[in-house]
Amino acid sequence: FVSPDEVILTMREVGEKLSSDYKETARGGLAQTRDGKHVEKLFEAEVRRFFGGADADGEG
User: Fold this and answer.
1) Whether the predicted model's global pTM rises above the 0.70 cut
2) Each residue of 9-37: pLDDT tens digit?
3) Cystine design at 36: which of 6, 20, 31, 43 (Cβ 3.0–4.6 Å)?
4) Cα(33)–Cα(31) distance, rounded to whole angstroms?
5) Max Cα–Cα distance, the chain, nearest Å
6) What angle do CA 4, 8, 9 make, to 5 degrees?
7) pLDDT band at 48 (very low <50, low <70, confident <90, very high)
8) Exposure of 31 by Cβ count < 10 A (0-12 exposed, 13-18 middle, 19+ buried)?
9) How far is it, in rounded angstroms, from Cα 1 to Cα 7?
């Protein structure tokens, strides 16, 4: 079997080499699709509802 330490190190190495366009971040991948942007707006509305006007970063 492959040890968890080797898996984590390999994942880190691959992640460092991978363009942000292919990572699941707010700058690339599914987050930049029409539906992804819609989900972001829904999430921000929920944050405002729960925290009284603050956006997802806790500001605003």
Assistant:
1) no
2) 999 999 899 887 777 677 777 788 899 99
3) 31
4) 6
5) 49
6) 115
7) very high
8) middle
9) 10
